[in-house]
Design brief:
Blueprint lengths: L2 H22 L12 H15 L14
Length: 65
């Protein structure tokens, strides 16, 4: 797959994943001590961000990431 097509595909998949996460979040909060939907999403974003390379170098092969 061409690099630009690969980037476009990954971007679309990421956007779909985030939209799905937001769509399935409950609209109300639980009892005391429960995380709010915003806190849950924030924690998830932090976890995903740790898996993404900081700098993507154009021309880098997929196996080099």
């Amino acid at each position: 797959m061409h690099e630009n097509a690969n980037i476009a595909f990954n971007l679309k998949e990421s956007q779909l994943a985030i939209k799905t996460i937001l769509d399935i979040q409950p609209r109300d909060t639980g009892g005391a001590g429960a995380q709010t939907p915003d806190e849950i999403i924030s924690d998830l974003i932090k976890k995903i961000s740790k898996m993404v390379p900081e700098n993507i170098i154009m021309g880098m092969d997929e196996d080099q990431l």
